[in-house]
Amino acid sequence: MARPPHAHPLARWSLPLAVGLLVAGSLLPLRWLGWARWFSEQTFVIAAPIAHPITRGVDLIVPASRPSPERTERERTLRDELERARVRLLQSDQRIGELESLVEQLSRGTLLHPDVEVSQLPRSVVGEAGEMLVVRTGTHEGVYRGAVVTAQSVHLVGRVADADTRTSRVLPITARGSMRLLGVVVVDDETGRRASCVLEPVGDGTLVGEVSPPPDGRAEEIQIGQTVRLFDEQWPRHAQMLVIGEVVRVEPSADQPLRRRITVQPRINPRRAGEVIIRLPIGGGG
Question: How many CA atoms lie within 13 A of 21 on its CB side?
Fold first, then answer.
């Protein structure tokens, strides 16, 4: 085909050049294309006045559906009711779990000494008075001075030092003013082998004392992590074998080479217990 008269020699290459420039521009970093924003702004200036009347016309022909205020308020009320019901359901599930846990704890406390009938009274700790814990219960529920206090039914917390009608003061076993304890370190849970120990509170939340090796064993058998239980005639029979804590440190005894000096820490810190269980023997079984 003959080239049109007066056509520029580069006219036939204009389209390939334009395509090539577009491809090259698409490969450039964005920070190099800031100059192209001017062209888009000019396009928006031209298109905006045209687009606005078109949009208004479409809205007149097909109006956008808007919910009535009554419908919006009703939906909001239903959503609030649903959320309140969901909260009540979650709270009920949590309370059921707490009650199931409490039943399990009380069952463990009853099985500890099945021959001694004990009433277990779960009550909240409402504060502290010096070294003592203040518990929300008192003589009106049968609490008396010297009653044994536990956490989760099996962990020894202390004894009631004083009680009035509505509140009781409990002296924890870790308080400096608490008396020393006689106990046993359980060396082997399966065989029941144990070693006797004497523990005294030192005021930092632990009890320290010396432990004798088992009658048929060695002092090296006393190890960190072993359970320490109460075995003290100065405490009621139903309190025997309650958990004092676990061994967290073992050292050689300075005076007796065949003994070990141990540090025992309660598994439940008495000062952080939000609830305690007071053991009250029935019929003088204590």
Answer: 7
Torsion angle of alpha carbons 20, 26, 32, 38, nearest 10°? 90
Question: For residue 126, what is the DSSP state?
Answer: E
Average pLDDT, the chain: 78
What is the C-alpha end-to-end distance of the chain, expressed in Å? 121
Spatial distance between the Cα atoms of 156 and 181, rounded to a whole number of angstroms: 11
In the numeric block, which tokens belong to residue 217?
Answer: 């064993």
Q: SS3 for 237-280, per residue?
A: HHHCCCEEEEEEEEEECCCCCCCEEEEEECCCCHHHCCEEEEEE
* 163: nearest Cα among 145, 146, 175: 145
Helix residue ranges, H only, 69-199: 69-112
Where residue 190 falls among pLDDT bands split at 50, 70, 90? confident
The SS3 assignment for 189 reads coil
Does position 2 have pLDDT exceeding 60, yes or no?
no
